[in-house]
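tool=predict chain=A
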Amino acid sequence: MNRLKKGDEVIVIAGKDKGKKGTVSRFVSAERVLVDGVNLVKKHTKPNPMTGAQGGIVSKEMPIHVSNIALFNPETQKADKVGYRVDGDNKVRYFKSTGKAVDA
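tool=predict ok
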């Protein structure tokens, strides 16, 4: 079960960008997400005169696996696990370390 949503602030916990923070911009698949400013690669592009595109080296964001990121808790300034609980009729995500709701 995926505990992340688009727009969540996350921190990278493994890989070459360990420690970087960003927001989830898009889910590429069930297990891979695009995070703003994380996992940047250099892509070499050929010029295309038909579309007017210039050639050169372009910096591009690539998807990162969800196991390498964790939700960032602004209260503790650390990565945190997320749980679900039912408050009345609503299903709410909460931080496991503090017990406070994520979306509140």
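Strands lie at 9-12, 21-27, 32-35, 40-45, 56-61, 64-65, 69-73, 78-80, 82-87, 90-95. The domain at 9-79 is CATH 2.30.30.30 (SH3 type barrels.).
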